[in-house]
Automatic annotation (TrEMBL):
GO terms for biological process: cellular response to oxidative stress. Belongs to the glutathione peroxidase family. One of its GO terms (molecular function) is peroxidase activity. This is Glutathione peroxidase. It comes from the Bacteria. Keywords: Oxidoreductase, Peroxidase.
Amino acid sequence: MSIYDFEVTTIRGEKTTLAPYQGQVLLIVNTATKCGFAPQFKGLQKLHDTYRDKGFAVLGFPSSQFLDQELHDNADIAQSCELNHGVSFPLYAKIDVNGSGAHPLFQYLSSEARGLLGSKAIKWNFTKFLVDRNGRVLKRFAPTDTPEMIESRIAELLDPAAV
Protein backbone atom coordinates (compact mmCIF):
# COMPACT_ATOMS: atom_id res chain seq x y z
CA MET A 1 0.00 0.00 0.00
CA SER A 2 1.22 3.48 -0.88
CA ILE A 3 1.05 6.42 1.51
CA TYR A 4 -1.30 8.04 -0.98
CA ASP A 5 -3.90 5.26 -0.57
CA PHE A 6 -4.64 5.85 3.10
CA GLU A 7 -8.12 7.19 3.78
CA VAL A 8 -8.16 10.26 5.98
CA THR A 9 -10.84 12.64 7.15
CA THR A 10 -10.34 16.38 6.90
CA ILE A 11 -10.87 18.59 9.93
CA ARG A 12 -14.21 19.52 8.31
CA GLY A 13 -15.33 15.86 8.14
CA GLU A 14 -14.73 15.07 4.46
CA LYS A 15 -13.32 11.62 3.61
CA THR A 16 -10.39 11.69 1.20
CA THR A 17 -6.96 10.14 0.65
CA LEU A 18 -3.47 11.63 0.44
CA ALA A 19 -3.50 11.12 -3.36
CA PRO A 20 -3.72 14.88 -4.04
CA TYR A 21 -0.21 15.17 -2.52
CA GLN A 22 1.40 12.65 -4.85
CA GLY A 23 4.69 14.03 -6.14
CA GLN A 24 5.11 16.45 -3.23
CA VAL A 25 7.45 16.44 -0.26
CA LEU A 26 5.36 16.10 2.92
CA LEU A 27 5.90 16.75 6.59
CA ILE A 28 3.21 14.82 8.48
CA VAL A 29 2.85 15.91 12.10
CA ASN A 30 0.74 14.78 15.05
CA THR A 31 -0.35 18.02 16.68
CA ALA A 32 -2.01 19.22 19.89
CA THR A 33 -3.15 22.78 20.48
CA LYS A 34 -2.65 22.68 24.28
CA CYS A 35 0.83 21.12 24.15
CA GLY A 36 3.99 22.94 25.22
CA PHE A 37 5.28 22.39 21.68
CA ALA A 38 2.28 24.25 20.16
CA PRO A 39 4.48 27.28 19.34
CA GLN A 40 5.89 25.03 16.58
CA PHE A 41 2.65 25.66 14.65
CA LYS A 42 4.10 29.01 13.59
CA GLY A 43 7.30 27.40 12.29
CA LEU A 44 5.34 24.67 10.51
CA GLN A 45 3.17 27.33 8.87
CA LYS A 46 6.28 29.25 7.79
CA LEU A 47 7.71 26.09 6.17
CA HIS A 48 4.40 25.48 4.42
CA ASP A 49 4.23 29.07 3.14
CA THR A 50 7.88 29.18 2.07
CA TYR A 51 7.93 25.91 0.12
CA ARG A 52 4.36 25.12 -0.98
CA ASP A 53 4.94 26.57 -4.46
CA LYS A 54 7.92 24.22 -4.82
CA GLY A 55 5.86 21.10 -4.08
CA PHE A 56 5.80 20.87 -0.28
CA ALA A 57 3.00 20.54 2.25
CA VAL A 58 2.67 20.25 6.01
CA LEU A 59 -0.19 17.95 7.04
CA GLY A 60 -1.41 18.19 10.63
CA PHE A 61 -3.15 15.34 12.45
CA PRO A 62 -4.42 16.37 15.90
CA SER A 63 -4.25 13.78 18.67
CA SER A 64 -5.20 13.73 22.34
CA GLN A 65 -3.18 10.69 23.30
CA PHE A 66 -0.60 12.56 25.31
CA LEU A 67 -2.10 14.05 28.49
CA ASP A 68 -5.30 14.98 26.64
CA GLN A 69 -3.61 18.08 25.20
CA GLU A 70 -5.99 18.51 22.29
CA LEU A 71 -9.44 20.08 22.19
CA HIS A 72 -12.32 17.62 21.91
CA ASP A 73 -14.15 18.96 18.87
CA ASN A 74 -12.61 19.18 15.37
CA ALA A 75 -14.26 22.56 14.72
CA ASP A 76 -12.70 23.94 17.92
CA ILE A 77 -9.31 22.54 16.90
CA ALA A 78 -9.52 24.20 13.48
CA GLN A 79 -10.56 27.51 15.03
CA SER A 80 -7.79 27.40 17.66
CA CYS A 81 -5.14 26.56 15.07
CA GLU A 82 -6.25 29.37 12.80
CA LEU A 83 -6.86 32.08 15.40
CA ASN A 84 -4.10 31.30 17.91
CA HIS A 85 -1.39 29.99 15.61
CA GLY A 86 -2.16 31.30 12.11
CA VAL A 87 -2.44 27.80 10.66
CA SER A 88 -3.67 27.47 7.10
CA PHE A 89 -1.88 24.24 6.18
CA PRO A 90 -4.16 21.18 5.87
CA LEU A 91 -5.52 19.77 9.12
CA TYR A 92 -7.25 16.44 9.52
CA ALA A 93 -9.72 15.05 12.02
CA LYS A 94 -8.42 14.12 15.47
CA ILE A 95 -7.00 10.58 15.56
CA ASP A 96 -5.04 8.17 17.74
CA VAL A 97 -1.41 7.74 16.73
CA ASN A 98 -0.54 4.81 19.02
CA GLY A 99 -2.11 1.59 20.23
CA SER A 100 -4.74 -0.71 18.79
CA GLY A 101 -6.87 2.26 17.71
CA ALA A 102 -4.03 4.06 15.94
CA HIS A 103 -4.95 5.42 12.54
CA PRO A 104 -3.56 3.16 9.77
CA LEU A 105 -1.55 6.09 8.35
CA PHE A 106 0.32 6.50 11.63
CA GLN A 107 0.76 2.74 12.00
CA TYR A 108 2.44 2.84 8.60
CA LEU A 109 4.53 5.95 9.30
CA SER A 110 5.80 4.63 12.63
CA SER A 111 6.77 1.27 11.14
CA GLU A 112 8.56 2.89 8.17
CA ALA A 113 10.53 5.40 10.25
CA ARG A 114 11.17 4.05 13.71
CA GLY A 115 12.06 6.13 16.70
CA LEU A 116 14.78 5.92 19.30
CA LEU A 117 16.19 2.39 19.71
CA GLY A 118 13.92 1.14 16.90
CA SER A 119 10.71 1.94 18.72
CA LYS A 120 7.52 2.15 16.68
CA ALA A 121 5.57 4.06 19.34
CA ILE A 122 5.20 7.79 18.97
CA LYS A 123 6.48 9.32 22.18
CA TRP A 124 4.76 12.73 22.19
CA ASN A 125 2.94 15.44 20.27
CA PHE A 126 4.68 17.11 17.34
CA THR A 127 6.49 14.00 16.15
CA LYS A 128 7.17 14.69 12.48
CA PHE A 129 7.54 12.35 9.49
CA LEU A 130 9.31 13.50 6.34
CA VAL A 131 8.05 11.91 3.11
CA ASP A 132 9.79 12.34 -0.25
CA ARG A 133 8.17 13.02 -3.64
CA ASN A 134 7.91 9.26 -4.27
CA GLY A 135 5.95 8.61 -1.09
CA ARG A 136 8.87 7.10 0.82
CA VAL A 137 8.97 7.85 4.54
CA LEU A 138 12.53 9.09 4.97
CA LYS A 139 12.84 10.15 8.57
CA ARG A 140 11.06 10.61 11.87
CA PHE A 141 11.84 13.79 13.78
CA ALA A 142 11.36 14.12 17.53
CA PRO A 143 8.99 16.66 19.06
CA THR A 144 12.04 18.68 20.16
CA ASP A 145 13.21 18.96 16.52
CA THR A 146 11.83 22.34 15.56
CA PRO A 147 10.63 23.18 12.05
CA GLU A 148 13.68 25.42 11.68
CA MET A 149 15.96 22.45 12.39
CA ILE A 150 14.26 20.44 9.62
CA GLU A 151 14.14 23.16 6.98
CA SER A 152 17.48 22.40 5.29
CA ARG A 153 16.45 18.76 4.81
CA ILE A 154 13.19 19.87 3.17
CA ALA A 155 14.97 22.38 0.92
CA GLU A 156 17.41 19.65 -0.15
CA LEU A 157 14.55 17.30 -1.12
CA LEU A 158 12.82 20.04 -3.09
CA ASP A 159 15.94 21.11 -4.99
CA PRO A 160 18.83 18.64 -4.62
CA ALA A 161 20.96 20.66 -7.09
CA ALA A 162 20.89 23.72 -4.81
CA VAL A 163 22.66 21.96 -1.95
